[in-house]
Design brief:
Blueprint: E1 2-7, E2 16-20, E3 26-29, H1 41-46, E4 57-59, H2 65-68, H3 71-76, E5 83-85, H4 87-117, H5 129-136, E6 139-141, E7 148-151, E8 154-160, E9 168-176, E10 179-185, E11 208-212, H6 226-240, E12 244-248, H7 254-267, E13 276-279, H8 281-291, H9 299-305, E14 317-320, H10 323-330, E15 336-340, H11 350-357, E16 364-367, H12 376-381, E17 386-389, E18 392-395, E19 399-402, H13 412-419, E20 429-433, H14 437-449, E21 455-456, E22 462-465
Parallel strand pairs: 3-4, 4-5, 5-6, 10-11, 11-20, 12-15, 12-16, 13-14, 13-15, 16-19, 20-21
Antiparallel strand pairs: 1-2, 1-22, 2-3, 7-8, 8-9, 9-10, 17-18
């Protein structure tokens, strides 16, 4: 058995890990897009590092674009095998991938207009909506905690990782040359204090661990203070300063958490009478899908739903689909809360909202999740005094705030708690993925203190023999 790492290797996005068996079969774990790498992003996404036609099976941990977003390109380049995921992941991946394809088609059309004026040849999108349709036809769903044999030598079991709706840890039982190994892939690990989803659940003993590292050196603030922090920022920005609060937020998971927190504040009579706009068609669709999968919800939100049937809706909350309505929000003069994608502020409508808010000291930009250092969100969080949006320079006069406790990624204590279901002495080898390189060094030390050994940090396109 060999494992090669073609994404999320010493970086956070682009999750792609390829298992090659001695009989020639190949299993790909995730096929995500790289994000936030500037001019390098497009070539990194176009060149996978392996032959898609050689892959027999794809197993998808969850629907976030950095884990699922390059599946249509994989199919376009010749992958014909089945794609295994949970049912909620299937529903979410459909809207996520169509949205990504539309963005690519529109961006390429805009670029090609400029290239045509310069008499340059046209560019092609990474993939189109027709490629998405073909990819979705290859999706097969497996329920949580049900073992499913995909061939005579490979068995899959999904366990709930608690990260987003439908997110799964992948547990593979692989037999080759008379030897059976348990290979575990964490996908992304969620939080035990999540306000909406069930906590991450224990998984079977593994021989090989492939584990994420996003917050391997960080402890989150307690979630019990999250709503109060949010309320304080709303009060300061919208009531005292009479400004706008712009919240860049991932459409899937983070947006619903922020809306749920505002809903709780509204139910408690604490939220000021300020209009709240969720300005993202993808966020609207993702929220609709979340409403259809209460089997993924924890007891807290189910208890809330006994008296509040819609925890993602309240008076003064408006879901915005149409572009013309989004433009109207940009022209608002009164205080408002605007939640818009993307979470790293690298694309989507939120860039327009930031552009219109950034030079007014009455306004606040609130970051609620992880951003790569080179992304617009990352630069704002690092304290940049000037930023470039759509090729124009802006002075940062708005207040930049952060609430880390909204994160859907476990911190290092939560990850250690999650991995405590394993006997470290029985884990023969551990690979750390999906993390910044310096963070992974610190996470490796914490794992070593917990008794794990043979911990590797693969670099891009490296291949490892499993003995």
């Amino acid at each position: 058995m060999k494992i090669s790492f073609h994404g999320a290797a010493r970086t956070v996005t682009g999750s792609k890990h390829l298992i090659s068996l001695s009989n020639g079969k190949k299993i790909l774990l995730d096929c995500g897009l790289f994000q936030g790498h500037g001019a390098d992003t497009d070539p990194m996404n176009r060149h996978l590092g392996f032959d898609p036609m050689s892959v027999n099976y794809l197993v998808l941990s969850h629907a976030h674009i950095d884990h699922s977003g390059n599946i249509p390109a994989l199919v376009k380049q010749g992958f014909k095998g089945p794609i295994y995921c949970t049912s909620a992941t299937r529903d979410l991946a459909a809207i996520m991938l169509f949205d990504t394809a539309h963005i690519q088609e529109n961006d390429i059309a805009y670029l090609n207009e400029r290239r045509e004026r310069k008499k340059l040849p046209p560019l092609q999108p990474l993939y189109t909506t027709s490629d998405v349709e073909k990819a979705l036809s290859q999706l097969f769903t497996i329920p949580f905690r049900k073992k499913h044999r995909i061939d005579e030598n490979i068995e899959i079991e999904f366990t709930d990782s608690g990260h987003i709706l439908g997110a799964a840890a992948v547990n593979l039982t692989i037999t080759e040359e008379g030897k059976t190994r348990q290979v575990y892939f964490s996908g992304d690990i969620g939080r035990y204090s999540d306000k909406i989803l069930k906590a991450p659940e224990p998984f079977p003993q593994a021989d090989i661990l492939i584990c994420e590292s996003t917050y391997g050196n960080r402890l989150h603030e307690g979630t019990e203070a999250t709503e109060q922090q949010l309320l304080s920022i709303v009060q300061k920005t919208c009531v005292e300063n009479k400004g706008r609060l712009v919240i860049p937020s991932f459409s899937l998971g983070r947006t619903q958490e922020v809306v749920y927190a505002l809903n709780n504040l509204k139910n408690a009579g604490k939220l000021p009478p300020i209009k709240v706009y969720v300005d993202s068609p993808l966020s609207v669709n993702a929220t609709t899908i979340m409403r259809t999968h209460p089997e993924c919800f924890n007891e807290d939100i189910l208890a809330t739903m006994r008296t509040d049937p819609d925890p993602f809706g309240f008076d003064d909350l408006f879901y915005v689909r149409r572009v013309e309505d989004s433009i109207k929000i940009n022209n608002l003069k009164e205080p408002a809360i605007i939640i818009s994608a993307s979470g790293m502020a690298e694309a989507g409508r939120v860039k327009h909202h930031i552009r219109n808010a950034i030079e007014d000291p009455r306004n606040t930009i609130l970051m609620v999740g992880y951003c790569t250092p080179d992304s617009l969100g990352g630069r704002l969080m690092a304290g940049a005094s000037r930023i470039s949006i759509f090729g124009k320079e802006f002075e940062v006069k708005a207040t930049i705030e952060q609430i880390h406790s909204f994160s859907a990624h476990a911190d290092y204590n939560e990850m250690l708690k999650y991995l405590s279901c394993q006997d470290p002495k029985k884990v023969k080898q551990c690979f750390l993925v999906h993390g910044d390189y310096d963070v992974q060094f610190e996470w490796r030390e914490k794992l070593q203190h917990a008794g794990f050994s043979n911990i590797e940090i693969p670099d891009m396109h490296s291949t490892w023999d499993i003995h």
